[in-house]
């Protein structure tokens, strides 16, 4: 069970999400934010080619976040968990995008992810942190995940089916990731 807090102007709204009562995002927009210049552009293009057709609206940026419910972020984190070359934090970018689902789609170290996760703010999102994209398995995994969500199923339930906990043969078909499910159950 997740606990979701969102901001609407100065009014604060909170509710618990469950598998039976997930946060439902109507007609979500997917955004791709590349902060890695050329090295991130090929990843962005590859992911957008597979994932954009699932969504009614796709946004792309090389510098600033646009408001979107689903955000794919291409960035390099330093050992302290800061985005290299930027003053704002990962959480700042997530909040300014008002994203509920975030994928740091570039590979970074576990230690860097742990460092930025410790810096909390008042915006909660389900954040996936990528350790190993495993080539085309990355976009295929998220395509299956989002298709399940568009079918009305909870993100967390679909995730567990695609990538169960523990070791098994399924590991060859999914990217290496860490999931911080701060927003809990979400569906489209």
Shape: globular
Gyration radius, rounded: 15 Å
Order of helices and strands: EEEEHEEHEHEHHEE
CATH class wording? Alpha Beta
Query: Averaging pLDDT over every residue, what do you get?
Result: 89
Low-confidence stretches: 1-12
Which CATH-level-2 architecture? 3-Layer(aba) Sandwich
Characterize the biggest β-sheet: 6 strands, mixed
Kindly identify the CATH topology. Answer: Rossmann fold
What fraction of the residues are assigned to beta strands by DSSP? 25-35%
Please describe what this structure looks like.
The protein has 188 residues and is α/β, with parallel strands linked by helices. The chain is 28% helix and 27% strand. It has helices spanning 38-51, 90-97, 110-117, 137-150, 155-162, and strands spanning 2-8, 11-17, 23-24, 29-34, 57-61, 70-74, 101-104, 126-132, 176-181, 186-187. The strands form 3 sheets. The chain has a 6-stranded mixed beta sheet, covered by helices on one side. β1 and β2 form a beta hairpin. α1 crosses α4 and α4 (137-150) packs across α5. The radius of gyration is 15 Å and the shape is globular.
């Amino acid at each position: 069970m997740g606990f979701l807090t969102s901001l609407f102007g100065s009014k604060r709204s909170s509710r618990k999400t469950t598998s039976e009562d997930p946060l439902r995002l109507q007609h979500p927009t997917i955004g791709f934010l590349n902060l890695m210049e050329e090295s991130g552009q090929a990843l962005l293009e590859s992911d957008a080619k597979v994932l954009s057709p699932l969504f009614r609206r796709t946004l792309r940026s090389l510098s600033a976040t646009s408001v979107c419910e689903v955000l794919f972020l291409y960035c390099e984190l330093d050992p302290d968990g800061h985005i290299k070359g930027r003053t704002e934090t990962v959480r700042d970018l997530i909040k300014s995008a008002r994203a509920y689902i975030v994928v740091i789609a570039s590979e970074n170290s576990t230690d860097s992810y742990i460092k930025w996760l410790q810096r909390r703010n008042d915006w909660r999102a389900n954040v996936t942190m990528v350790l190993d994209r495993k080539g085309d398995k990355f976009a295929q995994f998220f395509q299956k995940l989002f298709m399940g969500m568009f079918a009305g199923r909870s993100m967390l339930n679909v995730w567990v089916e695609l990538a169960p906990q523990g070791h098994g043969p399924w590991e060859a078909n999914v990217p290496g990731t860490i999931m911080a499910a701060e927003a809990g159950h979400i569906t489209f």
